């Protein structure tokens, strides 16, 4: 039994975590372009938030049937969907908290 199986209580493909990490790193770089006026700490905050969104989307879409490759294509598509939702929430939160630029 792997850590991912124990942690999530589900059987995700082993490629989900590395794909979610890579997508979150790329997404946090892009998202930090819009939140950089708050400092460099937003890069870390954005990365963690996007990783949580990617993993949550992969866990929620586990039983959803998609005609995609289960090990590579599906985790990328589902991760981007979860990260898109989280990035909208993060942008709304940062704008509401007082962007003076």
UniProtKB/TrEMBL annotation:
The lineage of its organism: Bacteria, Pseudomonadati, Pseudomonadota, Alphaproteobacteria, Hyphomicrobiales. The chain crosses the membrane at residues 12-31, 43-66, 72-95. This is Uncharacterized protein. Keywords: Membrane, Transmembrane, Transmembrane helix.
